[in-house]
């Protein structure tokens, strides 16, 4: 048998297999090394590009840690300080400026930014490490965490020295024209401690020029005692060659008044050993600037009417209180206060009277709290009190909180002496609804605490007002219910869960003249849902247009049936309209289309608008109301006295009817001021040519008083309750 050829059957030897495998592995390794090398070169190129971009940026860029030490810097900063990137890392500004005050300021600034952990924009000064000049910067400071979770601050500083100097030049020019802020120059001969001044210096400090002692001791005696140590340190730094002298401080005039100045200067002469011989400088009176700054600060941090802290101040204080109570294992509390029926005063007696009431409320609140507590006006008639510290023990803290809320409520329930537009003194009894929540750690944010205290306050209002309620977890269930109801409301129309009831209205002779349509919701799980609960949900979820269209369709269908030869042919039917509907540009056309689909006399259809309409875009709202009126239907101003009424607008709007809110009717029998308000409403409505209807009439005495005042129509449980359409027809069709 012949031996097989190499091509046919010979297998590679062991050495041959190993050589080929190794060659393949070498090729693969070489390819990977080449890929890694290419990637490394790309990363190096990218890093070089980014570093070049950062280093050539005209603004200063750097990153600091919580201790104020540099962790990153661009070349603009290192050139400014006359150093290198390798030298600056791990150091702070004091190594380059020699200005202790500046270094302290920069360190405090880092601490403040990290404590708030919010981006800040500030104006600050820094000393050029090469020239020793003060430069001015507009800096943006952004806190962040590095990949290890360590807090850092990134800073972008834009040099605005040229702009500031130009501004100062223009300011000096203007000040010179008006001769109000010429600088006071001084010249200090250090060798003999004598100081000479120009006349402007003596004018600023109200010291006759010929009575100056021209001594360093005199200068020191005119410094404000609280500012003297820092001034002396700044002067000493300048003498030692660290930095030019530049300081803002207070000085005392001869008659004891305080003057704020910017005091600046520098050593202009030294001996061969560097010992300072002469220093010159000037002071600039900045008292008016400081007063303006104080006023701006007051307006930005405090309520100008009541002088209480404002919303921003309260939130900042609350954020700090959360940290403190957590660190000290104590409790704190937030109390949310809303005055009951405040708009009665504000709308009917005017904003001046309402402001007087708010000022008195502020005085009463501050009189009941401790120095450690903070009272703030949140806006309108809402006040918030931050209470801290409370006891370590939760039960004791609850008792302390409840006792405080009781004192607050009693103080707010005391009578107020107010004045009406004719300056006649009136005794007014007011009350407030209080909601609160306790906290003792960082589990909840400031915003969440405020929200929960607000929820508790609204629960107090729902309980009948003049109540105090502490937030408890069960209220969260109600929030979840609101979310579910909002979702269920979307399908309520399709599943025929909505229906209408009618509440009859009667004229002065108790003859039936019309009815108000009241929307009802029969939920398959929760049963009947109050419109006070689902209407706000509909407005919030943009479902109000669909609900409003459904109600209008039902009302027009019912009215058309009444006018088709029944005993109800001359009854009018009222439909409530949300301000959200009126804001829709399509609302008028929707109403016109619905009217056109039914055979009816539109003058018997009445749309009821609340006073919230005055808080909308008035030109557009007025135009839509006139368009609605042109369709032939009537317009009614509902819940008058509880919203945003403006007599300026009312007299120009085409209202046919004014409805006095039930809250005024409830207090009619026992409150003289309330009776005067209702009488004013009735007379106002008649003067403007409107029919006046009173809601919520429940007693014979209320009816009697309203008729005496001239009310044209009445509505309320005294006459009849709301009822289904079939029940209404059965009860009144034959009467």
TrEMBL record:
Positions of the GGDEF domain: 330-473
Entries under Gene3D superfamilies matching the protein: 3.30.70.270, EAL domain, PAS domain
SUPFAM superfamilies according to UniProt: EAL domain-like, Nucleotide cyclase, PYP-like sensor domain (PAS domain)
Domain EAL: 482-735
Location of the region described as Disordered in the Swiss-Prot/TrEMBL record: 1-26
CDD domains tied to this protein: EAL, GGDEF, PAS
PAS domain ranges (all copies): 46-117, 170-242
Pfam families in UniProt: EAL, GGDEF, PAS_3, PAS_4
Domain PAC: 245-298
Protein name, entry field: EAL domain-containing protein
Organism: Cobetia marina (Deleya marina)
Organism phylogeny: Bacteria, Pseudomonadati, Pseudomonadota, Gammaproteobacteria, Oceanospirillales
């Amino acid at each position: 048998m012949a031996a097989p050829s190499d091509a046919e059957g010979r297998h590679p030897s062991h050495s041959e297999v190993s050589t080929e495998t190794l060659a393949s592995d070498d090729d693969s390794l070489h390819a990977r090394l080449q890929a890694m090398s290419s990637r490394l070169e790309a990363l190096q190129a990218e890093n070089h590009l980014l570093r070049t971009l950062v280093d050539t940026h005209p603004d200063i860029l750097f990153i600091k840690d919580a201790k104020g030490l540099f962790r990153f810097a661009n070349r603009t900063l290192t050139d400014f300080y006359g150093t290198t990137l390798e030298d600056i890392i791990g150091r702070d500004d004091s190594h380059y400026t020699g200005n202790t005050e500046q270094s302290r300021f920069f360190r405090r600034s880092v601490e403040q930014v990290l404590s708030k952990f919010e981006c800040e924009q500030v104006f600050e000064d820094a000393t050029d490490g090469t020239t020793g000049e003060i430069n001015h910067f507009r800096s943006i400071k952004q806190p962040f965490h590095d990949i290890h979770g360590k807090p850092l601050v990134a800073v972008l500083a834009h040099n605005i020295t040229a702009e500031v100097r130009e501004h100062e030049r223009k300011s000096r020019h203007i000040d010179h024209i008006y001769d109000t802020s010429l600088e006071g120059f001084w010249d200090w001969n250090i060798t003999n401690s004598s100081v000479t001044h120009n006349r402007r210096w003596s004018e600023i400090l109200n010291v006759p020029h010929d009575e100056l002692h021209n001594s360093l001791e005199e200068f020191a005696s005119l410094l404000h005692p609280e500012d003297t140590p820092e001034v002396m340190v700044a002067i000493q730094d300048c003498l030692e060659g660290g930095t030019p002298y530049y300081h803002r401080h207070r000085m005392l005039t001869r008659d004891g008044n305080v003057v704020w100045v910017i005091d600046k200067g520098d050593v202009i002469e030294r001996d061969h050993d560097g010992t300072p011989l002469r220093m010159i400088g000037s002071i600039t009176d900045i008292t008016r600037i400081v007063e303006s700054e104080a006023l701006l600060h007051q307006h930005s941090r405090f309520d100008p009417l009541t002088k209480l802290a404002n919303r921003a101040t309260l939130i900042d204080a609350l954020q700090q209180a959360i940290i403190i109570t957590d660190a000290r294992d104590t409790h704190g509390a937030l109390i949310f206060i809303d005055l009951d029926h405040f708009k009665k005063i504000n709308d009917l007696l005017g904003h001046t009277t309402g402001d007087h009431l708010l000022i008195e409320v502020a005085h009463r609140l501050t009189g009941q709290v401790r120095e450690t507590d903070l009272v703030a006006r949140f806006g309108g008639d809402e006040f918030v009190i931050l209470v801290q510290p409370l006891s370590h023990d939760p039960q004791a803290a609850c008792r302390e909180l409840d006792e405080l809320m009781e004192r607050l409520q009693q103080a707010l329930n005391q009578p107020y002496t107010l004045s009406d537009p004719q300056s006649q003194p009136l005794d007014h009894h007011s009350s407030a609804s209080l909601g609160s929540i306790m906290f003792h750690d960082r589990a909840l944010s400031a915003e969440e605490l405020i929200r929960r205290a607000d929820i508790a306050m609204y629960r107090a209002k729902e309980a009948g007002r003049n109540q105090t309620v502490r937030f408890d977890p069960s209220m969260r269930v109600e929030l979840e219910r609101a979310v579910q109801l909002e979702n269920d409301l979307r399908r309520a129309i399709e599943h025929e869960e909505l229906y209408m009831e009618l509440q009859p209205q009667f004229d002065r002779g108790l003859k039936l003249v019309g009815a108000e349509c009241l929307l009802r919701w029969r939920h398959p799980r929760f049963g009947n849902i109050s419109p006070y609960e689902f209407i706000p949900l509909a407005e919030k979820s943009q479902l109000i247009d669909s609900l409003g269209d459904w109600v209008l369709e039902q009302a027009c269908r019912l009215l058309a049936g009444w006018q088709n030869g029944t005993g109800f042919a001359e009854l009018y039917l009222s439909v409530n309209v949300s301000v959200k509907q009126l804001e829709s540009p399509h609302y008028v056309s929707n109403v016109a289309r619905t009217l056109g689909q039914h055979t009816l006399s539109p003058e018997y259809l009445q749309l009821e608008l609340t006073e919230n309409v005055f808080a909308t875009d008035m030109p557009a709202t007025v135009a839509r109301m006139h368009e609605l009126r042109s369709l032939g239907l009537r317009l009614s101003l509902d819940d008058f006295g509880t919203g945003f009424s403006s007599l300026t607008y009312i007299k120009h709007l085409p209202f046919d009817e004014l409805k006095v809110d039930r809250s005024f009717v409830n207090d009619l029998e026992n409150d003289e001021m309330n009776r005067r308000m209702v009488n004013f409403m009735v007379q106002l409505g008649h003067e403007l040519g409107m029919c006046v209807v009173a809601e919520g009439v429940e007693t014979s005495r209320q009816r009697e008083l309203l008729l005496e005042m001239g009310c044209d129509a009445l509505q309320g449980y005294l006459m009849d309750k709301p009822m289904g359409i079939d029940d209404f027809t059965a009860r009144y069709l034959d009467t």
